[in-house]
Amino acid sequence: MSGERTQTGRKRPRRRGRFLPYILLSPLVLFIGALALYPTIVTTVQAFFTVDPVNPPTRFAGLANFRALIHNPFVRQSAVNTALYIVVGVGLSTLFGLVIALVLQRRSRWRGVVLALVVLPWALPGVVEAVIWGWIYDATFGVLNSVLKSTGLIGSYHVWIGIGRVVSIVLIELVQVWQVTPLAALLILAALQSIPQEIYEAARVDGAGSWEKFRRITLPLVRPGLAVAMVESLILSLNVFDQVYVLNGFAPGGASIMLQTYQISFNNLNFGQGYALSLLATFATMLLSLLILAVVYRRVEF
Amino acid sequence: MNPGGHRLRRTVVCAALIAGAVVMLGPFLWTLATAFKPAADVFASPPKWIPHPFTLQGYRDVLALPFPRYLLNSAIVSISIVTLNVVFATAAAYAFAKLRFPGRRLLFFVLLLTLMVPFQVNLIPLYRIMIDLHNISPLIGANTYFGLIAPSAAQVFGIFLMRQFIASIPDAILESARLDGASELRILRSIVFPIAGPAIATLAIFTFVTAWNDFLWPLIVTNTDSMRTLPVGLAMLSRKNTMNWSATMAGAVITVIPMLAVFAVLQRRFVEGLTAGAVKGTG
Description:
The complex is a heterodimer.
Chain A: H1 15-46, E1 49-50, E2 59-60, H2 64-71, H3 73-105, H4 111-123, H5 126-137, H6 143-150, H7 165-193, H8 197-205, H9 210-221, H10 223-238, H11 242-248, H12 257-267, H13 271-296
Antiparallel strand pairs in A: 1-2
Chain B: H1 3-35, H2 39-42, H3 57-64, H4 67-98, H5 104-115, H6 119-136, H7 145-149, H8 156-167, H9 171-179, H10 184-195, H11 197-213, H12 216-221, H13 230-240, H14 245-265, H15 267-280
């Protein structure tokens, strides 16, 4: 914060000018303050209170909300489900993203077109994508059954969503993977493109094969891109909601933490526990992000 | 390098590209086809890829529902959110990048902090604020356009994007405009806005995608068909309407068409928006 009101070599601003920065900032500060900062404080504080509009008043409860959540079997199950969503989501979107980025790295006539097609699933609503895939997974009329049966992989049609927990979660998360992969691909592509070609040239002169170049040059040097892509996909899969809501509703077999938070807050109106659960989810996001960064991220300088 | 290996690699890359395109695009084509099929053909086994006979019944079914209203709501909400974000973020970014004033660093730091809090944390308090506002006046708060728009009207991520860009505008240009007697607002309107065009486009696209696709907040804050947006309307339709797939698919097509139109025109900006948005983290 500089104390000087005027800068040297410049006319003293008119009186109005002195307030201009605040005028320019005021709408933003007002909105952010009232609808972002204040709500965050409310959540953080009231997670330690019993907040129930049906049963007022709001009163201090210490860690009771957190304790109740930990002992709630549905919350526990949704935590396990979410862990599975994360593993599938982060794993597959990073893998597919890396493959797509490696393919797109080659300059070709079709690159622009392919890039556009690849980005498309990111731009479309998660609800629409879930509806589309719900139709593909449909037990009686879905393409998945029809393709698997005609290739002889299954003998008869299956109900895919809502029966087996792991199968349901994997199939639901695939929809999100489809949406997140473009993001991962572009982030990884950006990292790939920052690797200087001379390194590959030198390796080629030294007689390194394709696989060797990939393992010893590409993979280590693309780590910053991989780390960011993984964190992005972690944040999205930890908070997965749209796809689960459309494909599986509130069935506990596939419910995510986010769905459980919705259920507790807006169906059961237990706001205190809702606050506590969203705080826990935020801490989990931060911890896991840091973990990914610590394990995957390496500072790379050229 | 033998030419044979080269050709093989090219073939593999080409096949990978085609396979990728099919996986990315196939479901959309399938949706499009289903939306034009008569109800009986939707259930044909094996599935038909080309709708024959071709019908608009799915669309008629959906248009008989409040889908036109959902479309209108989605348009009003998304366009308002984009406009407000662009104006607020550009104004604030200009102040942070080019003006000196007491409290600048502190304010910037506080805004930076809010960037680290995911939207989900604010969900319940926001809902309760909207309920309270609704009790004050039925024109604002829950189940109103205000309620749908306000929480996304100003996003900190936009300031960072814009600030970086505006900081790169040479001070000399602004100085000479000042010497010519232009007011700061005039400078903002006539110099900063035009120069920052590309950054504004990126911000607008990213904000539009997020606003148009948003599901959770509209689901929470609306409770009548007259206020629902397309994703909420479509999710409700698909959950209660498991038999009429051609209508559901027609609804899905209506939900994505405006986005596809914007995408077709501004595809390059989408790629930039995608990577710029990653800094903030979506969801």
